[in-house]
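Q: How would the C-alpha coordinates look for this protein?
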Amino acid sequence: MELAAPVCEQVLLPAAPLYGEPLESMLDPVGALRLSILMPVRNAEATIVRAVSDVLNVGYPCPMELIVVDDGSTDCTVDRLAEIHDDRLTVFRHQGSRGKGTALLTAASLAAGTHLMVFDADPDYSAEDIPRILRPVLAGRCQVVYGTRLSGYHAVYPSRRYARGNRLLTLAANVLFDACLSDLHTGLRLVPRATFDELALREPGSGLGTEMTALLLKQGVRPFEVAVSYHGDSPTSRHEITWRDVLDCIRILLRVRFGRRTPAPAEHLRGRRFDDPRDWAETVKAIDTAGLAGPPELNQVTQITRLPTFALLPPLPSETINR
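A: Here is the predicted structure in C-alpha coordinate form.
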Protein backbone atom coordinates (compact mmCIF):
# COMPACT_ATOMS: atom_id res chain seq x y z
CA MET A 1 0.00 0.00 0.00
CA GLU A 2 1.40 3.36 -1.02
CA LEU A 3 1.54 5.94 1.74
CA ALA A 4 0.34 9.48 1.23
CA ALA A 5 3.03 12.08 0.62
CA PRO A 6 4.03 14.01 3.74
CA VAL A 7 2.50 17.44 4.01
CA CYS A 8 5.66 19.02 5.35
CA GLU A 9 9.15 17.96 6.20
CA GLN A 10 10.51 17.50 9.68
CA VAL A 11 13.06 20.15 10.58
CA LEU A 12 14.30 21.17 14.02
CA LEU A 13 14.61 24.93 14.19
CA PRO A 14 17.43 26.49 16.19
CA ALA A 15 16.80 29.16 18.78
CA ALA A 16 17.82 31.88 16.30
CA PRO A 17 15.08 33.56 14.22
CA LEU A 18 13.92 31.56 11.22
CA TYR A 19 16.12 32.25 8.18
CA GLY A 20 17.69 35.16 10.03
CA GLU A 21 14.47 37.18 9.93
CA PRO A 22 13.37 38.95 13.11
CA LEU A 23 9.92 38.10 14.40
CA GLU A 24 8.64 41.63 13.71
CA SER A 25 9.28 41.18 9.98
CA MET A 26 6.80 38.30 9.91
CA LEU A 27 3.81 40.28 11.16
CA ASP A 28 0.76 39.39 9.11
CA PRO A 29 -0.80 42.72 8.03
CA VAL A 30 -3.88 41.15 6.49
CA GLY A 31 -4.67 38.98 9.52
CA ALA A 32 -4.73 35.70 7.56
CA LEU A 33 -3.53 33.80 10.64
CA ARG A 34 -5.56 34.13 13.84
CA LEU A 35 -4.35 32.12 16.81
CA SER A 36 -6.57 30.46 19.41
CA ILE A 37 -4.63 29.05 22.36
CA LEU A 38 -6.47 26.23 24.14
CA MET A 39 -5.64 25.65 27.80
CA PRO A 40 -7.42 22.90 29.78
CA VAL A 41 -6.93 23.18 33.55
CA ARG A 42 -7.89 21.26 36.66
CA ASN A 43 -6.89 21.98 40.25
CA ALA A 44 -4.18 24.43 39.18
CA GLU A 45 -4.77 27.05 41.86
CA ALA A 46 -1.06 27.58 42.51
CA THR A 47 0.00 28.06 38.88
CA ILE A 48 -2.98 29.17 36.79
CA VAL A 49 -2.50 32.95 37.22
CA ARG A 50 1.13 32.71 36.19
CA ALA A 51 0.33 30.40 33.27
CA VAL A 52 -2.39 32.67 31.89
CA SER A 53 -0.48 35.92 32.43
CA ASP A 54 2.64 34.44 30.80
CA VAL A 55 0.62 33.59 27.67
CA LEU A 56 -1.07 37.00 27.54
CA ASN A 57 2.16 38.94 28.10
CA VAL A 58 3.95 37.45 25.10
CA GLY A 59 4.22 39.57 21.95
CA TYR A 60 2.53 37.77 19.04
CA PRO A 61 2.98 38.37 15.30
CA CYS A 62 -0.74 37.78 14.73
CA PRO A 63 -4.10 38.29 16.49
CA MET A 64 -4.67 35.83 19.33
CA GLU A 65 -7.13 34.68 21.96
CA LEU A 66 -6.76 32.41 24.99
CA ILE A 67 -9.52 29.97 25.88
CA VAL A 68 -9.27 28.35 29.31
CA VAL A 69 -11.59 25.47 30.19
CA ASP A 70 -11.70 24.46 33.85
CA ASP A 71 -12.47 20.76 34.06
CA GLY A 72 -14.38 20.73 37.34
CA SER A 73 -11.61 21.90 39.68
CA THR A 74 -12.25 21.32 43.38
CA ASP A 75 -9.79 23.96 44.59
CA CYS A 76 -9.77 27.75 44.03
CA THR A 77 -8.72 27.63 40.37
CA VAL A 78 -12.01 29.23 39.32
CA ASP A 79 -11.56 32.09 41.79
CA ARG A 80 -8.04 32.74 40.50
CA LEU A 81 -9.30 32.84 36.92
CA ALA A 82 -12.05 35.29 37.83
CA GLU A 83 -9.36 37.74 38.98
CA ILE A 84 -7.88 38.02 35.48
CA HIS A 85 -9.39 40.66 33.21
CA ASP A 86 -8.37 40.66 29.57
CA ASP A 87 -10.49 40.95 26.42
CA ARG A 88 -8.46 38.20 24.82
CA LEU A 89 -9.35 35.69 27.57
CA THR A 90 -12.39 33.40 27.52
CA VAL A 91 -13.05 31.13 30.50
CA PHE A 92 -15.47 28.22 30.58
CA ARG A 93 -16.09 25.67 33.30
CA HIS A 94 -17.25 22.07 33.40
CA GLN A 95 -19.34 21.56 36.52
CA GLY A 96 -17.77 18.12 36.95
CA SER A 97 -14.58 16.52 35.68
CA ARG A 98 -14.95 15.12 32.16
CA GLY A 99 -11.32 14.62 31.27
CA LYS A 100 -8.60 16.67 29.63
CA GLY A 101 -9.63 15.59 26.14
CA THR A 102 -13.20 16.73 26.62
CA ALA A 103 -11.94 20.05 28.00
CA LEU A 104 -9.85 20.55 24.86
CA LEU A 105 -12.83 19.77 22.63
CA THR A 106 -14.89 22.31 24.56
CA ALA A 107 -12.16 24.92 24.11
CA ALA A 108 -11.90 24.15 20.39
CA SER A 109 -15.66 24.60 19.97
CA LEU A 110 -15.40 28.08 21.48
CA ALA A 111 -12.38 29.08 19.39
CA ALA A 112 -12.62 31.54 16.51
CA GLY A 113 -9.07 31.36 15.18
CA THR A 114 -7.74 29.88 11.97
CA HIS A 115 -5.13 27.91 13.94
CA LEU A 116 -5.41 26.15 17.30
CA MET A 117 -2.51 25.92 19.73
CA VAL A 118 -2.74 23.33 22.49
CA PHE A 119 -0.83 24.72 25.47
CA ASP A 120 -0.72 22.89 28.79
CA ALA A 121 -1.25 25.04 31.88
CA ASP A 122 1.98 23.63 33.18
CA PRO A 123 5.08 25.51 34.43
CA ASP A 124 7.20 23.02 32.50
CA TYR A 125 6.63 24.91 29.23
CA SER A 126 7.45 28.49 28.31
CA ALA A 127 4.92 30.72 26.55
CA GLU A 128 7.84 32.57 24.96
CA ASP A 129 8.25 29.60 22.61
CA ILE A 130 4.81 30.14 21.03
CA PRO A 131 5.93 32.90 18.59
CA ARG A 132 8.80 30.65 17.46
CA ILE A 133 6.32 27.88 16.73
CA LEU A 134 4.32 30.31 14.60
CA ARG A 135 7.30 31.28 12.43
CA PRO A 136 7.24 28.28 10.04
CA VAL A 137 3.53 28.90 9.38
CA LEU A 138 4.05 32.62 8.80
CA ALA A 139 6.96 31.78 6.50
CA GLY A 140 4.70 29.49 4.46
CA ARG A 141 6.69 26.33 5.16
CA CYS A 142 3.92 24.24 6.76
CA GLN A 143 0.66 24.29 8.71
CA VAL A 144 1.15 21.72 11.51
CA VAL A 145 3.94 22.52 13.99
CA TYR A 146 5.00 20.68 17.16
CA GLY A 147 7.19 22.07 19.91
CA THR A 148 9.73 19.32 20.54
CA ARG A 149 11.57 18.64 23.80
CA LEU A 150 15.15 17.58 23.13
CA SER A 151 17.55 16.26 25.75
CA GLY A 152 20.54 18.57 25.97
CA TYR A 153 18.66 21.47 24.36
CA HIS A 154 17.05 23.68 27.02
CA ALA A 155 15.30 20.62 28.46
CA VAL A 156 15.26 18.98 31.89
CA TYR A 157 13.29 15.76 32.36
CA PRO A 158 11.97 14.73 35.81
CA SER A 159 13.61 11.30 35.58
CA ARG A 160 15.40 8.93 33.24
CA ARG A 161 12.39 6.62 33.36
CA TYR A 162 10.08 9.43 32.23
CA ALA A 163 12.35 10.37 29.33
CA ARG A 164 12.88 6.76 28.20
CA GLY A 165 9.15 6.06 28.39
CA ASN A 166 8.39 8.99 26.11
CA ARG A 167 11.09 7.89 23.65
CA LEU A 168 9.77 4.31 23.55
CA LEU A 169 6.19 5.43 22.90
CA THR A 170 7.42 7.88 20.26
CA LEU A 171 9.35 5.02 18.64
CA ALA A 172 6.18 2.90 18.63
CA ALA A 173 4.30 5.67 16.84
CA ASN A 174 7.10 6.09 14.30
CA VAL A 175 7.18 2.36 13.54
CA LEU A 176 3.41 2.09 13.20
CA PHE A 177 3.07 5.11 10.92
CA ASP A 178 6.47 5.11 9.17
CA ALA A 179 7.22 8.53 10.64
CA CYS A 180 10.19 10.24 12.28
CA LEU A 181 8.60 12.17 15.12
CA SER A 182 10.83 13.28 17.99
CA ASP A 183 8.32 13.89 20.78
CA LEU A 184 4.92 12.17 20.81
CA HIS A 185 3.72 13.71 24.08
CA THR A 186 4.73 17.33 23.68
CA GLY A 187 2.41 19.86 25.28
CA LEU A 188 2.80 22.37 22.41
CA ARG A 189 0.90 21.60 19.20
CA LEU A 190 -0.21 24.01 16.47
CA VAL A 191 -2.86 22.74 14.05
CA PRO A 192 -5.13 24.53 11.53
CA ARG A 193 -8.70 24.75 12.70
CA ALA A 194 -10.00 22.99 9.58
CA THR A 195 -7.58 20.09 10.09
CA PHE A 196 -8.53 19.79 13.77
CA ASP A 197 -12.24 19.58 12.92
CA GLU A 198 -11.64 16.93 10.25
CA LEU A 199 -9.95 14.64 12.79
CA ALA A 200 -13.21 14.25 14.78
CA LEU A 201 -11.35 13.40 17.98
CA ARG A 202 -13.09 11.27 20.58
CA GLU A 203 -10.70 10.46 23.44
CA PRO A 204 -12.06 12.07 26.65
CA GLY A 205 -8.87 11.87 28.72
CA SER A 206 -5.22 12.74 28.31
CA GLY A 207 -5.02 10.34 25.36
CA LEU A 208 -6.56 12.93 23.03
CA GLY A 209 -3.10 14.32 22.22
CA THR A 210 -1.92 10.85 21.22
CA GLU A 211 -5.04 10.33 19.14
CA MET A 212 -4.58 13.65 17.36
CA THR A 213 -0.96 12.90 16.48
CA ALA A 214 -1.78 9.36 15.36
CA LEU A 215 -4.57 10.56 13.06
CA LEU A 216 -2.32 13.23 11.57
CA LEU A 217 0.45 10.69 10.92
CA LYS A 218 -2.03 8.25 9.38
CA GLN A 219 -3.15 10.97 6.97
CA GLY A 220 0.43 11.50 5.89
CA VAL A 221 0.96 14.74 7.82
CA ARG A 222 4.45 15.13 9.25
CA PRO A 223 4.58 17.90 11.85
CA PHE A 224 7.24 20.56 11.46
CA GLU A 225 9.20 20.32 14.71
CA VAL A 226 10.58 23.30 16.60
CA ALA A 227 12.85 22.75 19.59
CA VAL A 228 11.38 24.30 22.75
CA SER A 229 12.49 24.65 26.36
CA TYR A 230 11.24 22.23 28.99
CA HIS A 231 11.69 22.33 32.76
CA GLY A 232 10.27 19.03 33.96
CA ASP A 233 11.74 19.12 37.46
CA SER A 234 10.16 22.39 38.61
CA PRO A 235 8.66 22.22 42.13
CA THR A 236 5.09 22.65 40.86
CA SER A 237 5.37 20.06 38.09
CA ARG A 238 2.95 17.15 38.17
CA HIS A 239 4.02 13.94 36.44
CA GLU A 240 1.59 11.14 37.12
CA ILE A 241 2.27 8.80 34.21
CA THR A 242 1.46 5.20 35.12
CA TRP A 243 1.54 1.88 33.33
CA ARG A 244 -2.16 2.37 32.68
CA ASP A 245 -1.32 5.55 30.75
CA VAL A 246 1.31 3.66 28.76
CA LEU A 247 -1.13 0.88 27.85
CA ASP A 248 -3.77 3.46 26.99
CA CYS A 249 -1.33 5.21 24.64
CA ILE A 250 -0.48 1.94 22.89
CA ARG A 251 -4.20 1.12 22.61
CA ILE A 252 -4.90 4.44 20.90
CA LEU A 253 -1.98 4.05 18.49
CA LEU A 254 -3.11 0.55 17.51
CA ARG A 255 -6.75 1.59 17.18
CA VAL A 256 -5.91 4.46 14.86
CA ARG A 257 -3.39 2.46 12.82
CA PHE A 258 -5.44 -0.69 12.26
CA GLY A 259 -9.00 0.28 13.12
CA ARG A 260 -11.66 1.38 10.69
CA ARG A 261 -12.71 5.01 10.75
CA THR A 262 -16.17 5.36 12.31
CA PRO A 263 -17.96 8.65 13.03
CA ALA A 264 -17.99 9.68 16.68
CA PRO A 265 -21.34 10.34 18.37
CA ALA A 266 -22.69 13.79 17.62
CA GLU A 267 -19.64 14.36 15.43
CA HIS A 268 -21.60 16.78 13.26
CA LEU A 269 -21.91 19.12 16.24
CA ARG A 270 -18.17 19.58 16.62
CA GLY A 271 -16.46 22.50 15.03
CA ARG A 272 -19.46 24.80 15.36
CA ARG A 273 -18.95 28.45 16.26
CA PHE A 274 -20.88 29.86 19.19
CA ASP A 275 -21.66 33.58 19.29
CA ASP A 276 -24.11 33.19 22.17
CA PRO A 277 -23.56 31.11 25.33
CA ARG A 278 -27.12 29.81 25.02
CA ASP A 279 -26.23 28.20 21.68
CA TRP A 280 -23.37 26.37 23.37
CA ALA A 281 -25.59 25.19 26.23
CA GLU A 282 -28.11 23.77 23.76
CA THR A 283 -25.38 21.98 21.85
CA VAL A 284 -23.95 20.51 25.05
CA LYS A 285 -27.36 19.07 25.86
CA ALA A 286 -27.53 17.54 22.37
CA ILE A 287 -24.08 16.01 22.78
CA ASP A 288 -25.00 14.65 26.20
CA THR A 289 -28.15 13.09 24.74
CA ALA A 290 -25.95 11.33 22.17
CA GLY A 291 -23.84 9.92 24.99
CA LEU A 292 -20.60 11.74 24.15
CA ALA A 293 -20.14 13.96 27.20
CA GLY A 294 -21.05 13.78 30.87
CA PRO A 295 -23.75 15.65 32.79
CA PRO A 296 -25.13 18.69 30.95
CA GLU A 297 -24.66 21.10 33.86
CA LEU A 298 -22.07 23.64 32.82
CA ASN A 299 -21.21 26.76 34.74
CA GLN A 300 -19.80 29.89 33.17
CA VAL A 301 -17.04 31.66 35.04
CA THR A 302 -16.95 34.74 32.86
CA GLN A 303 -19.29 35.86 30.13
CA ILE A 304 -18.41 34.27 26.82
CA THR A 305 -18.02 37.07 24.31
CA ARG A 306 -17.05 36.95 20.69
CA LEU A 307 -15.79 40.10 19.05
CA PRO A 308 -16.69 40.71 15.38
CA THR A 309 -12.99 40.53 14.50
CA PHE A 310 -9.78 39.75 16.31
CA ALA A 311 -8.02 42.74 17.79
CA LEU A 312 -4.24 42.80 17.70
CA LEU A 313 -3.67 44.08 21.21
CA PRO A 314 -0.29 44.86 22.79
CA PRO A 315 0.85 42.65 25.66
CA LEU A 316 -0.52 43.81 28.98
CA PRO A 317 1.77 44.45 31.95
CA SER A 318 1.78 41.79 34.65
CA GLU A 319 0.35 44.18 37.25
CA THR A 320 -2.72 44.62 35.05
CA ILE A 321 -3.16 40.88 34.68
CA ASN A 322 -2.87 40.15 38.38
CA ARG A 323 -5.02 42.92 39.74
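Residues 182 and 218 are 16 Å apart (CA to CA).

The radius of gyration is 19 Å.

Upvote if useful.
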